[in-house]
Automatic annotation (TrEMBL):
Pfam families assigned to the protein according to its UniProt record, in alphabetical order: MS_channel_2nd (PF00924)
Membrane found in the keyword field: yes
Signal peptide coordinates: none
Stretches assigned to the Mechanosensitive ion channel MscS domain: 179-245
Species this chain originates from: Cryptosporangium japonicum
Protein name: Mechanosensitive ion channel
Region (Disordered) residue spans: 361-396
Residue stretches of biased makeup (Basic and acidic residues): 381-396
Compartments in which it is found: Membrane
InterPro entries: LSM_dom_sf (IPR010920), MscS_beta-dom_sf (IPR023408), MscS_channel_2nd (IPR006685)
Tagged with keyword Transmembrane helix: yes
Keywords noted in UniProt: Membrane, Transmembrane, Transmembrane helix
Amino acid sequence: MFDELPDAVVTLVTAAVSVLVALVVVQILHVVARRLGRRAQLFEQIAARLHRPVQCLAAVLAVQASLHATTTGGDWRGPLLHAVTVLVIASVAWVVGALLVILEDAALSRFRTDVENNKRNRRVHTQIMVVRRVTVAVVVVVALGAVLVTFPTARAAGASLLASAGIAGVVAALAAQSVLGNVFAGVQLAFSDELRIDDVVVVEGEWGRVEDITLSYVVLHLWDDRRLTLPTSYFTTKPFQNWTRNESALLGAVEIDVDWAVPTEDMRRELRHVCEGTDLWDGRACVFQVTDAIGGLVRVRALVTARDAPTLFDLRCHVRERLVQWLRENHPQALPRTRADVTGIPGVRIDKVENLNGRELGPGAVADAPDDARVFSGSADGRERSAAFAGRSEDT
C-alpha cells in the first residue's frame, strides 16, 4: 500500500510519527528528571532548562532520520535536508548552551552571597557570570560558523576571506577598538578581583552597589534606586572607591564644626553613649577627636564602625543627628558662631614702644621683630636666604 503513495506523503507521515515518538520519549525523561529534582537540585535545573532544547533537537533529528530512511531522490530532498541540517546545528548549540548554564548555576548555588564576609563568594559569582557570557558567545559564534560551512558558496569564499583576513583584521580592530577594549576590560575585572558583584563603590560622586558586570558595561544600583551604567573600561582606566574590597565591615567619619567653647570630654562621653544605644554599631571602634582648630571654629570628628556600608551610612546619620541635638540642648554656647571686634580692645592704648636696641619709638610706631620672628633678615642665615631668593644685584 505504501508503494502506491507518493514519496512526499510517505516521508511526511513517517516524519510526523517519528517526531511524535521522539516527543513522547523526551516527555517521559522530563517527568523522570522532575521527580529526581525533588531530591537533587541539579536534576531540577536539568528538567527546567533542557526540556525545550531537547524537544527541539529530538524533533529535528527525527525528521532528518525519516528523510534519510524514506527518500532517495527528488529535487526537494537536497534543500530540505540542508534546512534540517541547519536546524540540527542550531538545536545542538541550544542544548550545549543550556548545559553550560546549568553547570554555571550549579556552581553559583554553592557560593551564597547573602551572608556576611562574602568576599570570596562574590568574587566567584563575578567570574562565573563573565564566563557564562563568554561561553554563550563562543557557542553562538561556533554555531554560526558551522551553519555557514554547510553552504557551498560560503566554503568557496573561504579561501578569499582568509587571504584578506589580515587587512580585514586591522580594519575591524580600528573600527571596534572601544568595543574590544570593553570586552577585555570585563574579563580583566572578573579575574583581577578589582570589582565584584555586590561591591559597594563610589563612582562619579555616586554611591551604590554593583548589580551586574557584563563584557561591555557595569550596572550600579544607586542608593536611591537609580541605575548608573558605565563601560567596563572605566573601572580599569579611572580611579573609584571600593568600600568592600577586603571586607564588608567599614569605618566611617562624622565631622562637625563647633565653637571653641565645646566641652570635648562631655562630647566624647556622649558619642560613646550614642553608639552603645544603637544596634547599628558593631562595637569595634568609637573614637572622638579634635582634628582642626582654625578660622574661629573647632572641627571635631567621630569615627564609628558598622558591619556593612548601608548600616554605616545609617549609623553616621544617627550619630550626627544625636550629637547636634545634644549640643543644641545641653551646650548652646558650643554652637558655631562668628566673632567680630569693631570697637577695639577697651582700656588698652599703645603710647610707648621700644625698639630692640632700646630706642623709644613714637605712638603708632612698630617695633622691630626679634630674630626668631624673621625668615629673610635679622640673622646671617636669614640674610643668606634673602639673597638666594632676591638674586644678585647688578653691582655685584
